[in-house]
Amino acid sequence: MKPGKVFSHVGQAFPGGAYDYVIVGGGRLGLAVAFYLRRAIPEARVLIVEQSGIPSEGGALLHARGVWHSADLPPGKLAQATWARQVWQDPEAETGTRRPHDPRFQPVGWARALNVASEDTEDHFHGEGLALLEPQAFLSKFSPDAREQLGTLLDWSRIGAVQFDAQGGYGSATSLALSYGYGAVRLGADLLLNTEARLHPGAVELRRLDITPRMEVVVAQTLRVPCAHLIVAAGSEGPALLESDLGLVCPHGRAYAQFPRLELPPAAGIPVISRAGFTVRSGEGGFRVLPAAAPGGDPPEYQPCGGRLTGVPVGVRREILDELLLSLPDWPAFEGGALNLGKTVVDVPGGWEARPRGGWPLWRHVADNVTLLLGGLESDRLGLPTALDLAYELAGIAGRPWHDV
Amino acid sequence: MKPGKVFSHVGQAFPGGAYDYVIVGGGRLGLAVAFYLRRAIPEARVLIVEQSGIPSEGGALLHARGVWHSADLPPGKLAQATWARQVWQDPEAETGTRRPHDPRFQPVGWARALNVASEDTEDHFHGEGLALLEPQAFLSKFSPDAREQLGTLLDWSRIGAVQFDAQGGYGSATSLALSYGYGAVRLGADLLLNTEARLHPGAVELRRLDITPRMEVVVAQTLRVPCAHLIVAAGSEGPALLESDLGLVCPHGRAYAQFPRLELPPAAGIPVISRAGFTVRSGEGGFRVLPAAAPGGDPPEYQPCGGRLTGVPVGVRREILDELLLSLPDWPAFEGGALNLGKTVVDVPGGWEARPRGGWPLWRHVADNVTLLLGGLESDRLGLPTALDLAYELAGIAGRPWHDV
């Protein structure tokens, strides 16, 4: 099979021509759907259009939470998530792409600290690897170093039980997406970087961007390619693009998520911990603090900005600050100087996350030959299965590589 | 008992002097807590400070939803809500204030249209007057005129059951608040209008406002009154005031709610109807469309503004537009020209609503002798009981006029 081409700058002539599938957005879902389309329909001409690079600077992929666990999944989705974890643990087997120096999935386990071992919890108890443990039994699973650090992170005297998924862990969403990107190109998809897409019925207008010596971004070339089917996988910008260009109203929210850092060197093998609205996982020499679903959707007019605390500016937005303040009794580690709140919004890593209706990643045919593909908060667990599902649906393939339980 | 005094403009000399209770905010909860404090502790010196008039132009009271029903209440709160309805139906009996020309509570009934008579519904089935009816049995309770209009509002072919509260209805929150305001002054509370309050430990700085001939609002007089106990009942601005003035961080949200109008003359006796994220009630010659909890809390930086629909500006914010679009199959009445979306935000009635943690109205001692009183979405049903509860707590009275079930 002849590989596709990557066009990263306007110096490379792009021949144009008609495509069967144009995918707008080279994020995790866009690259995965391109890969599966080429694998399922080898004769399909597939083009991925990305306005920036991979990972896109403004998108959700760069700052993706990157956490996997099996809790709170309805039975029909557990099989999909389990399949996604297997892919994450060995992307080479799925995509045929070797990237030996990329960070790999870390199966350190995932734990949620609970007040009591309530029946509410058992309602959400679907993961095969999930166990409900006494706090001491949980802590005894780890090395003395990790145990000591767990003791400084969380106030265990407030914890009645721990929901533990030994198969949980964290990984790099970017690395996984790159595997699919290389895989898609290897299977014959073309990839056009630094190119904006404007949508038209049956065609896509491509605006190849360039940077002048004065650092202005300009449209250096405009061309139009006919396409039989359009897939919009542009993250939180996708619904707005469909509305502005094609007049298709697709109500979906988006929110600017931020991830403060806890500047403590992580002990080896320390698990991902979830408690009181926050998930904390190690990474890059410290810990990333992942807020829960909060903040909800932001108004369309919201511009990301930091918050103020009794008048003093900090980089973390106010809604997350509120949650941090409320969770101090649970997380003593947040109270010292180790929590880096930044001084302005640029000091705190963050990005726009989509908020699909219903909470789960989804695809939806919003017009004839136009499909919206949207990830959101659950992309780490269900993004890939959703992309595969769309590709197989378009290819007319009935089976799926997971088995519903 | 000697009545209190109302100081509405700086031309009236305000003598100052110490107060036992200063209540910041002359909304529904502030006026009610003042009334109950004076009734419970006749010797207490009580001052209400309101930055505007009553109702305050920027506050939630003016645009309060004004709907009462008994669904979805936990048992402990049902008794409180039932008591609140009795007060609303006859405020004179409770407050001793006669305002015969004010709009009265309209016991037209409240109905929620459901897909099916599911068990989920029965979980929330606590009102004594609540019934679960077949749609036809529900419709047959109304006059032919009302029945016909109900048929044009909602697509009843999509409705499987109706949860009906014959004791539900709607009323004017402003009128109820005024009853309490007059009552509080009659019982001896002082009321200072057009006055901003800045908080200090043990004292309140009062800034009496005036309007110059050039329509500028200026501080015309500043004075400081000692107060033994401070109650902040300033609606969605209360937590921010406590934080900026006293450094007390009280995480709570706020949201700008808007109420589009459905320009159809209401049939007599038409009930309040709730369905698919919206409640519609008659009022002022048309219907008010009340969105559900959406939008959630807004970021602190949000400025109310209208939305855009495929590029065309409208007065209703985008989040509510999304919900309206999604509910069109349920509410055919929203589709014609009768729904008034306005052209800019000023065309659509709306105001800032508090979003207390947990959803229910609450009071909380946030420092020694400083109490936050916060209403939010459930103020129509539980605001007054919360205000009474705080007053009785401060007075050391054990009983409450409602009986928990």
CATH class of the largest domain in chain A: Alpha Beta
Structural class of chain A: alpha/beta
CATH superfamily of the largest domain in chain A: FAD/NAD(P)-binding domain
Might you state the CATH topology name of the largest domain in chain A? FAD/NAD(P)-binding domain
Give the beta-strand count of chain A: 23
What kind of oligomer do you see?
homodimer
Q: What's the main sheet of chain A like?
A: 9 strands, mixed
Number of helices of chain A: 10
Helix content percent band of chain A: 25-40%
Mean pLDDT of chain A: 93
Structural write-up:
The structure is a homodimer of 405-residue chains. By secondary structure, chain A is an alpha/beta fold. The first copy, chain A, has two domains: 6-100 and 172-252 and 356-404, FAD/NAD(P)-binding domain, CATH 3.50.50; 110-166 and 255-351, D-Amino Acid Oxidase, subunit A, domain 2 (D-Amino Acid Oxidase, Chain A, domain 2), CATH 3.30.9. The first copy, chain A, is built from ten helices and 23 strands. The first copy, chain A, has helices at 28-40, 75-89, 91-95, 119-123, 135-139, 144-153, 173-186, 238-246, 318-326, 379-395, and strands at 6-7, 19-24, 46-49, 67-68, 110-114, 130-133, 161-165, 169-170, 190-192, 195-200, 203-211, 217-232, 253-258, 261-262, 272-275, 278-283, 286-291, 307-309, 312-314, 339-340, 350-355, 362-367, 370-374. In chain A, strands 1, 2, 3, 9, 10, 11, 12, 22 and 23 form a nine-stranded mixed β-sheet that branches. In chain A, β11 and β12 (217-232) form a beta hairpin. In chain A, α2 (75-89) crosses α10. The longest helix of chain A is centred in the last third of the chain and has 17 residues, at 379-395. The first copy, chain A, is globular and about 65 Å long. The mean pLDDT of chain A is 93. The A-B interface holds A 243-244, 247, 249, 251, 253, 295-303, 305, 307-311, 317-319, 322-323, 325-326 and B 243-244, 247, 249, 251, 253, 295-303, 305, 307-311, 317-319, 322-323, 325-326.
